[in-house]
């Protein structure tokens, strides 16, 4: 039954049951939420109407003030380019993680003063005279490399009297004559019998420098497809520049072709920061090209193909707004102490995509004014256009801002910094879109009215000039009006849409549940870089999956902790978190030496029964003797930090080395981390702790998923609350929120199908997906509530009015990111994939699913709704297309 005939008001939402607005003269009874919502909408619309009138009256002044304010912010808070190191693991580790304290202690007590460069040589069989000869040639060239007054001999780490270079060539002591004279049989014999390096006099395991090994029937190595050579040089600050320069020369050497070797891979300490930073900075060309593409698209879509109604200048103004927003966000974030990290290079693309969406909505609102409203003074037209568009972009901007501010509460520094930058950027974008851009729009309207050329504003067209008829047609609105909306609202089509939506949900929820959590640092390297190729080859030929680690003990009473130190060794050797046979304990070796030594001077200082030093002083004196003079103790000299080397000795710190077993996934990784930390704490309390570089990755993986769930849940709640308050209807808000939820699930599912995983980068993107998904559906939901009439006609009016800008905004977002598809940067390509999915599914749910849902169960309009869809306005000149959409202002019915 027609709600206008029975006048029945649904007591739950204040609207008639079929979605029509009540036409009764009786004042409807509003719920508390409706009163609040009505007040907010009224305040917003009034504020934006007044702002629009002000801008329409003084457009140049507002543009000038906006520019001055932007300049003052950038000057008062200048952006200092403090770039986080691309290889800095701490960017991805929770700020309150204990492993960061462990890392800090280890680096202060056992500072790394060693740098390295390494090459992997690959051939059908590297254990041949030809390959060994080629390797010696490379070695000989490397030791001749010079940088300033330094060469390899002055920069190298020495082992005894020789520079430390690890490879199979050390079995021949890098002697040219011996190496070149070695036969195939000699090589095979040497690698299968050598247990000690004749050059460095330490134990030698040939399997650590050979990959792709093939064994003969007797279990001996018969061939290998890869081998590596590693140069060790000093890493002190005093020689850092020279060391990096030498590394670059080694990299250049490794990238050359070498006769006798099929492929050479090279890597050095500097490689990661060089290549990771270069990947993102090298793709800045995509940013420039992306902006050009978007400018062209905006010009085409905002204006018409004639000399008067093109809007090239307005398109430029829109891009200027994005540029100003970038400046503000970088300055404010820098002022707050946040660093520019490896994720931040996508911000210009992100702000471009979001900003263009707002521009289409604002310009669309101006074009959608009724014929009567188009005749009003300029300031009135701008005011009325901004009245509805301002409220609409407020909803979308607030949801994006809140999503990122919630993301900024994360414990992960890289994610927190990016979210702060993005939130500041969207705030700036929102403010400048409603001031600077609207002012530019008013100026552009004045220009067209004055018949000034769109591209050359100094040229005025003659009064007889008339735009061609073809340019007056707007095909997208016409398509929506005459084909899309009528067909979408047919009942069979509605059923197909709902079934398709349900099917997509079922398929993608399976993919979302199976989305793997995985992150590798090498993903930040360009996929075509030499460093990425090296790490891939290293994983292929030399990765056992085992990770080197250690138990570090602080400045404690080692003499009095005999029981604890022995128990620690026993439990480590028996632990499932430690590879069997890899525990190398200085304390165990030391006490074994004390028990077996025949040195009378040592025996005199130990207890005859326990074989333990008589007192603390003797304990440290004998320990120092053990690691400096005894062959069994020399290898531990780097694992012990003596507080001094004279008078009364003591230990500032110590290390027990071991290896973690290979882990099959991230869950097993952080289980190993928790297990080893609990084991050590149970034996030694806070005196000792385990630490390894891989612990940083495991710690990050341990919290990423829970951080993602927390941020998504909080963002979703905030998005719903904002939609509820600003859309001002619980049912419409729930429908809009269902679009967000479905889009999120669809994106997560197809991320799995596309081979993406949960990591810090995709965490950012999934938070972004919440905000962007709202943009497409919130505009539809809000616009639907501003029309009177039955559900179908209100949906049709909504699609005709806002559908075009939503499509244009979504497509422009896609254009802003499309060039990233061919980038070599993991950050850029991942952003493209996720944003592509967000746009596709966001538009589907906003323009297909939501209109169908609203047409079936949508609530009634706002009580302040003053527009009604005009079905077929015959008097409208078909030649004019649908520039002024089919609606007219009506008296409020409340």
Automatic annotation (TrEMBL):
Gene Ontology CC entries for this record: membrane
Segments of skewed composition (Polar residues): 8-22
Keywords: Membrane, Transmembrane, Transmembrane helix
Annotated protein name in UniProt: NPC1
Entry-linked SUPFAM superfamilies: Multidrug efflux transporter AcrB transmembrane domain
Region: Disordered, residue numbers: 1-24, 873-894
Record-stated family: Belongs to the patched family.
Transmembrane segments: 60-81, 284-302, 314-335, 347-369, 390-414, 420-443, 491-513, 708-727, 734-754, 766-787, 799-822, 834-863
Domain SSD: 283-443
């Amino acid at each position: 039954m027609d709600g206008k005939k029975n006048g029945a008001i649904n007591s739950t939402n204040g609207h008639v049951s079929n979605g029509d607005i009540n036409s009764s003269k009786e004042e409807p009874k509003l719920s508390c939420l409706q009163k609040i919502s009505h007040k907010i909408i009224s305040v917003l619309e009034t504020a934006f109407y007044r702002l629009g009138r002000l801008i329409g009256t003084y457009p140049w002044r507002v543009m000038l003030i906006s520019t001055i304010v932007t300049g003052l912010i950038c000057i008062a808070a200048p952006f200092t380019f403090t770039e986080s190191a691309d290889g800095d693991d701490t960017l991805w580790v929770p700020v309150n993680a204990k492993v960061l304290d462990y890392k800090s202690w280890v680096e202060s007590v056992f500072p790394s003063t060693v740098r390295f460069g390494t090459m992997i040589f690959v051939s059908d069989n590297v254990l041949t005279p030809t390959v060994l000869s080629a390797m010696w040639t490379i070695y000989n060239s490397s030791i001749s490399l010079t940088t300033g007054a330094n060469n390899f001999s002055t920069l190298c780490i020495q082992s005894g009297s020789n520079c430390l270079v690890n490879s199979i060539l050390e079995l021949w002591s890098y002697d040219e004559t011996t190496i070149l004279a070695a036969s195939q049989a000699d090589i095979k014999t040497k690698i299968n019998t050598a247990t000690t390096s004749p050059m460095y006099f330490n134990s030698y395991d040939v399997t650590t420098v050979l990959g792709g090994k093939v064994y003969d029937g007797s279990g001996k190595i018969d061939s290998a497809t890869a081998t590596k050579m590693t140069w060790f040089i000093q890493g002190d600050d005093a020689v850092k520049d020279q060391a990096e320069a030498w590394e670059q020369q080694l990299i250049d050497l490794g990238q050359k072709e070498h006769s006798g070797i099929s492929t050479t891979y090279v890597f050095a300490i500097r490689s990661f920061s060089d290549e990771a930073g270069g990947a993102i900075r090298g793709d800045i060309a995509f940013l420039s090209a992306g902006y050009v593409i978007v400018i062209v698209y905006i010009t085409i879509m905002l204006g018409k193909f004639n000399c008067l109604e093109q809007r090239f200048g307005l398109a430029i103004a829109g891009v200027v707004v994005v540029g100003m927003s970038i400046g503000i966000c970088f300055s404010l974030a820098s002022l707050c102490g946040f660093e520019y990290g490896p994720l931040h290079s996508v911000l210009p693309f992100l702000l471009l995509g979001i900003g263009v969406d707002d521009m289409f909505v604002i310009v669309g609102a101006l074009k959608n004014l009724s014929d009567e409203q188009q005749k009003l003074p300029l300031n009135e037209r701008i005011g009325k256009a901004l009245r509805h568009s301002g409220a609409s972009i407020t909803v979308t901007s607030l949801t994006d801002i809140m999503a990122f501010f919630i993301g900024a509460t994360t414990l992960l520094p890289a994610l927190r910094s990016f979210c702060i930058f993005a939130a500041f950027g969207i705030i700036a974008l929102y403010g400048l879109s409603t001031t600077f851009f609207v002012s530019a729009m008013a100026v552009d309207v004045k220009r067209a009215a004055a018949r000034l050329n769109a591209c050359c504003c100094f040229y005025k067209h003659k009064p007889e000039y008339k735009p061609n008829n073809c340019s007056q047609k707007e095909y997208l609105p016409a398509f929506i009006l005459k084909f899309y909306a009528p067909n979408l609202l047919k009942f069979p089509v509605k059923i197909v849409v709902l079934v398709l939506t349900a099917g997509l949900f079922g398929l993608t929820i399976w993919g979302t549940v199976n989305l793997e959590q995985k992150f590798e640092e090498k993903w930040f390297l360009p996929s075509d870089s030499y460093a990425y190729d090296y790490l891939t080859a290293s994983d292929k030929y030399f990765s056992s999956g085992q990770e080197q680690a250690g138990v570090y003990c602080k400045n404690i009473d080692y003499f009095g902790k005999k029981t604890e130190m022995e128990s620690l060794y026993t439990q480590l050797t028996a632990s499932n978190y430690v590879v069997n046979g890899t525990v190398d304990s200085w304390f165990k070796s030391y006490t074994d030496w004390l028990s077996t030594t025949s040195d009378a001077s040592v025996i005199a200082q130990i207890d005859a029964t326990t074989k333990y030093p008589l007192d603390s002083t003797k304990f440290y004196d004998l320990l120092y003797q053990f690691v400096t003079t005894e062959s069994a103790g020399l290898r531990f000299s780097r694992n012990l930090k003596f507080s001094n080397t004279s008078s009364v000795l003591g230990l500032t710190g110590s290390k027990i080395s071991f290896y973690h077993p290979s882990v099959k996934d991230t869950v097993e990784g952080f289980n190993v981390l928790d297990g080893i930390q609990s084991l050590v704490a149970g034996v030694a309390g806070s005196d000792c702790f385990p630490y390894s570089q891989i612990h940083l990755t495991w710690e990050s993986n341990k919290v990423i998923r829970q951080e993602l769930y927390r941020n998504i849940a909080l963002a979703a709640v905030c998005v719903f609350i904002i939609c509820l308050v600003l859309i001002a209807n619980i049912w419409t808000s729930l429908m809009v929120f269902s679009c967000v939820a479905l889009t999120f699930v669809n994106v997560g599912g197809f991320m799995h199908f596309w081979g993406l995983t949960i990591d810090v980068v995709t965490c950012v993107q999934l938070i972004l997906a919440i905000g962007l998904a709202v943009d497409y559906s919130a505009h539809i939901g809000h616009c639907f509530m501003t029309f009177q009439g039955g559900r179908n006609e209100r949906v049709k009016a909504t699609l005709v009015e806002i559908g075009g800008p939503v499509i244009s905004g979504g497509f422009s977002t896609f254009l802003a990111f499309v060039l990233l598809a061919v980038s070599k940067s993991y950050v850029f390509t991942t952003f493209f994939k996720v944003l592509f999915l967000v746009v596709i599914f966001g538009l589907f749910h906003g323009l297909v699913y939501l209109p169908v849902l609203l047409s079936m169960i949508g609530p009634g309009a706002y009580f302040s709704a003053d527009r009604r869809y005009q079905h077929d306005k015959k008097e409208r000149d078909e030649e004019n297309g649908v520039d002024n959409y089919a609606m007219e202002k009506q008296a409020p019915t409340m």
